[in-house]
Amino acid sequence: MEESQDEEFFKWQDEYGEFRENKGREEGIEEGREEERNKFIGILLDSMTPEEISEKFSIPLKDIK
Question: Which of 1, 4, 17, 26 has its CA at a distance of 20 to 30 angstroms from the CA of residue 11?
Answer without folding.
Answer: 26
